[in-house]
Amino acid sequence: MPLTQAPCLGPNRRDLLRFGSVAVASAALGSSVFSRARAATPEAGHTSNDPAVIFVWLPGGPPHQDTFDLKPDAPAEYRGAYKPIQTNVSGIEICEHLPRLAGVADKFALIRSISHTFADHGGGHKRFLTGRDPLQPAGFVNDTPMVGSMAAEVLKDRRAAVPNYICGVDGGRQGIDVFSFGSAYLGPQTHPYMVVGDPSEAAFEVKNLSPVAGTAEKLPDRLALLNRLDRPLAGSEASGLGMDAIRQRAVGLLTTDTARGAFDLAKESVKVRERYGIHRYGQRALMARRLIEHGANWVTMVMENATPPGATMKPNHTYNWDSHAVNCHIFEDTQFKLGFLDQAISALIEDLYSRGLNRRVLLVVTGEFGRTPRIEYDKKTGRPGRDHWPQAMSILVSGACKTGQVVGSTTARAEVPKDRPLTPNDLWATVFQHLNIDYNRTSFLDGTGRPMPLLPYGDVIGELT
């Protein structure tokens, strides 16, 4: 996967004033079948019973047979270097380098039989994240909206102290097309609010949640001017859309401490932060929990480079989960990353349950595909690795679903689904149902005016509901 993309610095203060809260202000673009964007009334705080999603994205494609679908009886050239360990659920085994997750297996489910046909990173991202076959098998620019943007559009009227749709990424990785997070015909108002950087670093801060120094007292006059300028240009339709209320909500994000406090990990005890891990995986997981508690409906956290603050990447390691032999030594690199992932996700799962969030929050942890069953070796270095493999993958889900189980299986060498074959669309149908979104009866107008359903096909995974 490319590590350099055209810069996209995320929403600035002007964007917030223009769009209100991300995924709420549609700015009268008219892309939805909902003919009019309704401005929500102000409220004190957030609705704590709304369903929500935490989506942990592992770009590059983690190896399913070295994480959640080990095949200890397969030939050596397939089974890899790791051994399975028993979890706290009888009959469920996972990788030996995930001991903390093994201890909370009763609180998550594993899906082992999802597959698709796009082996390129770009095509795999687009296929997995949009629920549709992309027009181009490579490249990261979406033809159709990412599922997070679709949910953001449908749920845009929900009120919260923070943006409804938020994404945490490494610095330099915030371009909307880096991971095929683009919204296509839904427009940029359904893009996530980007939280950029390593939240475990002492100097980390969330940009643009405060007015420029010395300008706070000028905001009321500027807001009144914007409202007066809008009306002659857009006519009565603009006032019907409630732009005044939308802008007031945006100003609230800039001028109150509530949103800033939601992102402030210093408000957590040292003990809690250390339990998640003082690294980007752990602190992003903790931030996701805090944002959900403050009312966000969809929080995506991208977990790539696991290198702790102040350290440099180790030899034989790679930035994301793209564990070709030419990129890294797959077993050294994966073991390193799994230590951070194990700590972060197990702590998040424990918190979801101990705080009662499991009743309304669905956690999904996945990449765009799995890795080749047979191990490859780099000709120059002799390092082992695995190539792209969309024919099989493993996905962890936790929280608002039936847990302590495995859905589906793969063949003896982890090559293809054996039992209960599923597609990414079945996963998203399950997620949309959790969000109370009728994916069979909800559609948007594309650039040509044609109604496009959220998903062209897909069924709820009944075992999880």
How would you characterize this protein structure?
The protein has a domain of 253 residues. With 465 residues, it is α/β, with parallel strands linked by helices. α1 packs antiparallel against α8 and α11 runs parallel beside α12. A hairpin with a 6-residue loop joins β2 and β3. The strands form six sheets. An eight-stranded mixed sheet has the order 6-5-7-1-8-13-4-14, sandwiched between helices. The protein has a two-stranded antiparallel ribbon with strand order 2-3. The chain has a two-stranded antiparallel ribbon with strand order 9-12. The longest helix has 25 residues. The protein starts with 12 loop residues before the first helix and ends in a 12-residue tail after the last strand. It has 13 helices and 18 strands. The N terminus is likely disordered.
Notable traits:
single chain, 465 residues, alpha/beta, eight-stranded mixed β-sheet, two-stranded antiparallel ribbon, 13 helices, 18 strands, 28% helix, disordered N terminus
Number of helices: 13
Shape: globular
In whole angstroms, the N-to-C terminal distance is 35 Å
Instruction: Average the pLDDT over all residues and give the rounded result.
Output: 87
How does the helix and strand content classify structurally? alpha/beta
The number of strands is 18
What's the Cα radius of gyration? 22 Å
Strand numbers in spatial order across the main sheet:
6-5-7-1-8-13-4-14
Identify low-pLDDT runs.
Answer: 1-11, 13-47, 236-242
Task: Kindly state the percentage of residues in helix.
Answer: 25-40%
Beta-strand content bin = 5-15%
Largest sheet: 8 strands, mixed
